[in-house]
Specification:
The chain has about 725 residues and is α/β, with parallel strands linked by helices. The protein contains 28 helices and 19 strands. Bound molecules: ligand LEDWP2DD. It catalyses: (3E,5Z)-octadienoyl-CoA = (2E,5Z)-octadienoyl-CoA; (2S,3S)-3-hydroxy-2-methylbutanoyl-CoA = (2E)-2-methylbut-2-enoyl-CoA + H2O; (3E,5Z)-tetradecadienoyl-CoA = (2E,5Z)-tetradecadienoyl-CoA; a 4-saturated-(3S)-3-hydroxyacyl-CoA = a (3E)-enoyl-CoA + H2O.
Amino acid sequence: MAEYNRVSECVGLITLRNPPVNALSAAVRQGIVDTVQRALSDPNVKSVVICGQNGIFCGGADIKEFRSNMTGPPLIPMIHAIESANKPVVAAIEGSALGGGLELALGCHYRIAHSKARLGLPEVSLGLLPAAGGSQRLPRLIGVPAALNLITTGRHVTAAEALQLGIVDQVTDHNTVAAAVKFALSVAGRSLDPRRISTHPCPQQPDLDALFEEVMQKVRQSARGAIAPIACVQAVRAAATLPYAQGMERERELMATLFTSGQARALQYCFFAERAVGRWRMPSGARWDTSKPRPVHKAAVIGLGTMGRGITVALAQTGLSVIAVETQEKQLMEAKQAISGMLERGAKGRGVAPALDGVIYSQNIQAVADVDLVIEAVFEDIALKTKVFQQLSAVCKPGTLLCTNTSALDVDQLASETPNPELVVGMHFFAPAHVMKLLEVVYGPRSSPQAVATAMQLGKKMGKASVAVGNCRGFVGNRMLKPYIEEAFFLLEEGATPELVDQALEEFGFPMGVFRMSDLSGLDVGWRVRKGDGLVEPGTASGRSARIRQGRRYSPLGDLLCEEGRFGQKTGRGWYQYDKPGSRVARFDPWLHSFLGAYRAQHGLVARRIDHQEVLERCLYALINEGFHILDDGIAAGPEDIDVIYVSGYGWPRHRGGPMFYANMVGLAKVLERLEHYQQLHPEVPHLQPSSLLRRLVASGSPPIHKWGEAIKKLHSQL
Ligand SMILES: CCCCCCCCCCCCC/C=C/C(=O)SCCNC(=O)CCNC(=O)[C@H](O)C(C)(C)COP(=O)(O)OP(=O)(O)OC[C@H]1O[C@@H](n2cnc3c(N)ncnc32)[C@H](O)[C@@H]1OP(=O)(O)O
């Protein structure tokens, strides 16, 4: 897995061979150990170059090996042997040098990178730290502040930034290996002492304590309970304050804690889950690898409200030409200005030219006649959307894919109103659409695999975590959110406060608890939906019967707040109060607390003490339970789909892996037992009734999450 050749007579060229990313598997490590030894013992070899095959240096340690007993030569002595070699070793970096890949390069005496290469120590995003000496060498090479930034965020830097920071010695636009070989020849015979990073002291840094205190505080705040970023700071502190050998010892100790942690398992699960959702499959048997997407060169967006504007920006930023349609002239002008502003800001951030010319604005739907794909983003009204779809069917060239950005309406119903239902899919974006990572691609029974493949590919092009899901009320994300929000309302009725519920959820790792989130997105959104469902009853009826609607427990608390004009941040009042409409800082509101007291008195409810554990169990297990229903119904193909949706679109803390992974970690039997417990206490709440899939999985011995797919198939075939 590492090939050895002698080139230019006296350069030993070592090529890592482990597709697709030349990860440092046991075989690759063994290959490096053997070939380095061979090069060093060959008297004809004056210097050595290490590169990777297929235009990528190395994607780091093999993450798949972390969950098994690791065999083969360990990384640290392997890198140390390279650093202490008596012949210069040059890393030729193309593509990526990440994690252990960059640590290997830092062990080399020189680093030459291609201008398109990207480098980084992303271990923190896998719940780890750069524990092959990276946390000790990088600060010695580029200084403590820059190393802290790279190691605690895991961000990848371009070759140009790497050169500026001093991580690489040279950047080339040409053949990197050839440049590295030439360079290796030029430095043969030079003293290597100054090039051995581990022997350097860290560059002097004034006020080291204050710097670490400040960074630690920042990291704690943004980590939301994740432990790896904190360990990363501690490791860099060891580099800055201890001799190398002791620093390495500290790096090892910190890694030992992280390596076996649940958080590392969760984060590594997320890494693979994000890739697994790209291998989508539909209940019909259609799959990602047998369905060819159509090429999309030109797209259109219909309706330029908040969502339509964001979608236009996201499409234009991928380099597509976009026709943006809005029938009202004033709104079209406003949208044009807003979209141009978003494109300019986005381009500035990425250091590229804004794609302003990529968008053509029109008031006339006829303008979309020759596009390959349309995304409709008009107001959430089935009659209006149906009309737009009928117009589009008449206007567009044959084969144009028609996508709806609905978050709640029935994609099948819309499809049935068009002559070609196989060309219709949902593309459920999240606001702001050009920023949020998540995209639910919603297929109905008649959507063609090609339509799904095209929408999935477009989502990927836009940089979205795209997940294919079946059509049902709320799709996956919002369907699971409903019981979560309802439980939070019930907890308020029983004695909790918005502050208590939010604190429990934020300590769990959500960026915002359910009530702060609801204030941000607007209480009127859910009110409108509940009204549409016939659940909202005006008046002051009291007692238990007033809180049973359509045969199940119902809390009118949200409706009552809306009746008071409290729509959240936008009105300056909601579950909290704000300094003025539009302000973001949520403050305790005495009005709300006396309102809750009066409400409980009116309904004969006696407030009891509710603790964080109950908040978490009732809100999260109700949500998870709905996830099991979704799997049982075949709406999501596997737990990874649900988890990616929750981590990338709903603020579920990544270091907890997603709701289904969390259930797996807690133990399915425990989740079942707690749901049964709460269901007995609240028999009128159907979403606490454990899903039959959860019961069946527990009965079949609670298989680990990677075996659920198999278990579900087996359980379904037994039905
Ligand atoms: C008891 C206590 C003991 C304690 C001590 C134990 C010590 C043991 C450890 C020693 C120290 C280790 C220190 C080093 C750690 C690391 O290096 S961790 C890994 C760090 N690297 C990364 O995080 C990079 C991850 N990969 C990427 O970011 C991207 O894949 C890429 C390299 C930028 C390429 O992107 P792209 O071209 O878009 O391809 P992808 O689709 O993402 O990937 C293609 C397939 O490759 C798989 N893959 C990628 N990287 C790895 C990897 N590092 N290991 C294994 N597999 C990898 C990826 O999953 C894709 O495959 P599929 O999932 O099958 O699609």
